[in-house]
Specification:
The chain is an alpha/beta fold and 284 residues long. It has ten helices and twelve strands.
């Protein structure tokens, strides 16, 4: 299964294959235009991509959804999705079926893994327009910890990672498990980096976007490791957009918009506003 933490695992540690553009079957773009609203699914509590700050929904994916809707010529409405057991379930809920409680699905869903096997297994959706390449990074308290040492030398330091994520498996299981007793589990990668910033941890591993965003919001409180993470099992992964399999013209429009958007100053400004360096997807 791939849950949202599977996005943090480089898709279950599988190599990311080139994914051919999916061909869709129907054309509901007219319905979006007629309603005047594009319904966009984003993950809940997923900083820096989509979360509530002082009660207001913000984040990179939130801003991208707004920009896509603007370029289609409609307003945007967000479906805030609580991550399910796996991303397959998230796609059922957010894109092609809706929830069992009667919530209607969205028109598009952001931050979906772009992976051949995953796409073949979820043939009720098409996964299009990969827009970012994610990977992992380490943040350290510069006063207590040298972030550039081999990670095994962090034994005895206070380490933080999201529970049951690849950063957790990396810190707990790599290097003969010498760091396992030092790892404290938190609810998210952002929380892990914030533990370093507030002084309750000496080092944390999270996605690079989570590290960059946290350091951007609290400059001077932590540093990012400059070198690679030895023995990190995931080379990184691409994220993309999902549409229902009968949404051919909507998927085509979104792909065309994203192809223009990724080369624009507006696109890079969205990432920069959250302190995240834009890294283009390698697929597509």
């Amino acid at each position: 299964m791939i849950d949202r933490r599977g996005l943090l695992s480089g898709l279950g540690l599988a190599a990311i294959g080139a994914l051919a553009p999916a061909r869709l079957l129907a054309a509901p773009l007219d319905s979006v235009l007629a309603s005047g609203v594009l319904r966009v699914a984003v993950y809940r509590d997923f900083q820096p991509w989509s979360w509530r700050r002082d009660g207001v929904l913000v984040g990179i994916d939130v801003d991208l959804g707004l920009e896509i809707a603007r370029r289609i010529g409609v307003k945007v409405d967000y479906l805030e999705l609580a991550a399910g057991e796996d991303v397959d379930e998230d796609l059922r809920t957010a894109v092609w079926r809706g929830s069992l409680l009667g919530m209607a699905p969205a028109d598009i869903m952001l931050h979906v893994p772009y992976d051949r096997e995953f796409a073949l297994r979820n043939d009720r959706v098409a996964i299009v327009a990969p827009y970012f390449r994610e990977s992992f990074a380490m943040a350290c308290n510069g006063e207590t910890t040298d972030c550039e040492v081999p990670p095994a030398q962090l034994k005895g330091k206070r380490l933080a990672a999201e529970l049951d994520s690849i950063p957790d498996f990396y810190l707990s299981g790599s290097f003969g498990g010498v760091l396992r007793a030092d790892v404290r589990h938190v609810v998210s990668g952002s929380a892990a980096v914030n533990a370093v910033i507030d002084g309750s941890a000496d080092a944390a591993v999270a996605t690079r976007a989570q590290v960059e965003n946290a350091l951007h919001d609290s400059p001077g409180h932590a540093t990012e490791r400059k070198g690679p993470l030895p023995a990190m099992m995931s080379p990184g992964w691409d994220v993309a957009i999902a549409v229902k399999d009968n949404s051919r013209d909507l998927g085509d429009r979104v792909e065309a918009i994203m192809a223009e958007l990724v080369d624009s100053d507006a696109f890079k400004a969205i990432f920069a506003a959250y302190g995240v360096t834009y890294r283009p997807a390698i697929s597509g």
